[in-house]
Amino acid sequence: MKQLLEIIVKALVDNPEMVTVNEISGEASVILELRVASDDMGKVIGKQGRIAKAIRTVIKAAAVKENKRVVVEIV
To answer: What is the pTM of this model?
Structure first.
């Protein structure tokens, strides 16, 4: 899931080398902390958070296979 998030976000931003994903695993859930350059923050969030919501939807769908709950936080 971490790699999937990186691939999606790197395709959206102007500075893909600044994209980092930190994975914090729990028993039944995983938190993915996404960090991007401040210039690219708007591109990742999108108008009214639509892109961020779409990213979260894709990651949650991928997590269903592993029976885990995933939270994507944009830091």
So the answer is: 0.90
Name residues whose C-beta falls within 8 Å of residue 31's C-beta, 6 or more positions apart in sequence.
23, 24, 70, 71, 73
Q: Given CATH 3.30.300.20, say whether it is the number of domain 2-74.
A: yes
**C-beta separation of 69 from 31 below 8 A:** no
Structural domain boundaries in the chain = 2-74
Give the Å distances, CA to CA, from 64 to 8, 10, 33, 58, 69: 18, 23, 19, 10, 8
Confidence of residue 68 (pLDDT cuts 50, 70, 90): confident
